[in-house]
Automatic annotation (TrEMBL):
<protein>
    <submittedName>
        <fullName>HigA family addiction module antidote protein</fullName>
    </submittedName>
</protein>
<dbReference type="InterPro" id="IPR010982">
    <property type="entry name" value="Lambda_DNA-bd_dom_sf"/>
</dbReference>
<dbReference type="Pfam" id="PF01381">
    <property type="entry name" value="HTH_3"/>
</dbReference>
<feature type="domain" description="HTH cro/C1-type">
    <location>
        <begin position="25"/>
        <end position="80"/>
    </location>
</feature>
<dbReference type="InterPro" id="IPR001387">
    <property type="entry name" value="Cro/C1-type_HTH"/>
</dbReference>
<dbReference type="InterPro" id="IPR013430">
    <property type="entry name" value="Toxin_antidote_HigA"/>
</dbReference>
<keyword id="KW-0238">DNA-binding</keyword>
Amino acid sequence: MCLTELDPRLDVDPDTPLRRPGDVLLQDYMLPRGLSAAQLGRRTGVRASHLKGITLGTRRITPEIALRLACALEPTAFYWMALQLRFDLERTHRLLTTRRAGPPPGSE
């Protein structure tokens, strides 16, 4: 396995549209290959229902799932984890920003 030295200032281009990791999995990897969740599940050892949950956005890509996807598809486990982390960070940032924009505590 090739490890990458990470720069502490590593960031994602904010102009890149945010996509759910499950959308990337479905639209960029499963559909072009004609793979169903059941077929990908057989290749990865991940239950089809779990993969379906990832594509629907009700489940996350965990480190174990990332490693299993990396064995069956071209992207590395790091790629799958980076997609999930970027999505989680952006969602949390939006949540915190929304909370801060609300009325100050005790003003109601």
